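for the record, two folds in this file. i put them one after another cuz i was lazy. first one right below, seq on top, structure tokens after. the second one comes after a little note so u can tell where it starts
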Amino acid sequence: MLKFFTPQNQTLLRQLVITDFKLRYQGSVLGYVWSLLKPLMLFTVLYLVFTYVLPLGKGVPHFAAYLLLGVVMWNFFVEGTTMGMGSIVGRGDLIRKVQISKPAIVIASTLSAAVNFGLSLIIVGIFMFFNHAEVSAMVVFLPLVLLELLALVLALSFFLSALYVRFRDIAQIWEVILQIMFYATPIIYALQYVQPHKNLLVLISLNPIAQIIQDAREMLITTYTLTTHEVLGWVLGVGIPLVFLALLSIFSIWFFKKSSKTFAENL
């Protein structure tokens, strides 16, 4: 994998990211504006439902910004892993015809989703301002949390993309898993509501995407947020996610490298 970081591959990666981003909204009237409209539309529906119909946001300070940040981070997780999963198959013709860095294809898809994520964070910042969010001094560690999210998406993308080349049913399976994970992640509800159920609280807290979203909320929105390190203690709450991410990344890169030898014949 170290061979990937050559000037040629970095140039290739940059061009792939630009191409993926341009092609995504090609032919649409609003174009890149959809990058901002999609999370906003989903947020509006969720906010109205869970504020006025099922008031799960009751008692949560700055719930609008709290909810929007969760929606935006979840959308990046879904978009990044879904695009990453189909990246190798989507570039099958190119892989069969020329020698091209396969890791660059996966990374480019994830970074293309990250561009959308960055644009959406601008909207989150505006909501934070008007919602008078309580930015914590811990916000200096936010880049590490965002890097953790990017690393998680990349690791899953490497694994899923290699698996998808051979088993196309993975797309449907991953869609079901994402639906389950959505409700197993405190996006539309505060984790405090689960506190009476200790075992469930621990299980949800161990969900890596839940840990990342809750950490970001604590830094940017409100200290009311219950985080993994508060549930498990600092040693386990910080150590378990990092160890999990390290093991997942190592396994995913190994699996991708091993599987990439037969990509051309399976595409």
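(here's the note) second protein begins now
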Amino acid sequence: MPRLNNYLSLVKFSHTIFAMPFALIGFFLGLTKESETFTWTLLVKVVLCMIFARTAAMAFNRYADRHIDEQNERTRQREIPGGILSASSVLLLVIISAGLFIGVTYTINSICFYLSPVALLVVLGYSYTKRFTWLCHVVLGIGLSLAPIGAYLAVTGQFNWTPLLFSLTVITWVSGFDIIYALQDESFDRSAKLYSMPSNFGKSTALRIARVLHISSAVFVISAGIYARFGLTYWIGALLFIGLLIFQHRLVRPTDLSRVNLAFFTTNGVASIVFAIFVIAELLLFR
């Protein structure tokens, strides 16, 4: 009988740490920029949307890739190929999570509700991109980048340039660290005729592309600070975020992938949390 922790492991619930802080940035940005009234109910709804959308996306990724995971030595012990969870139960989790996501957006406002199928199309569609394009990393980045825009829309019901700049930060940041993570499967992806930047361009070139993406992420962080006229607290957070981007590139070499997990999870998890703390502090204390 599958237990809750099996499903949490399936969807890598702890990895919610990557996008959730940026969703909170979008939420508090909407409150302060448009002088909206804070309510715990809306905050809980935004958090639930993040959890349900990400759960649907990760579960669908595991469902769609179950046969690929069986062939890859690194992934063959995952829940479906390892026999811990059935494919049908995982697909049911996808359907329930997607339905709950749409249901919660309906209670927020009309624009979030109307855009919810589009968001699901992006985050679920990512699972198939590795079969036909090495831009799969960018599609993943786009999926996670919906967090700050979506949270801002939940609060205000309208678009704004500042959350868009944070979304561009997320696209380039996530794309870059996903390329680093994909270095582990370069040989397998090539043999299985799957597309990724490491399998198409080699480890060295893929790492250079990741560096360019992370430089772009730093540019967007700086642009957001200048555009929104943020103060010192924001710039401290921005400096720490950029510093952690640099640090992860010192951990990984084409010939040494032993610290990929440290670069992928620990460094990026810390980067997103630290940056969000400073940005939200700037918004709440000095706006």
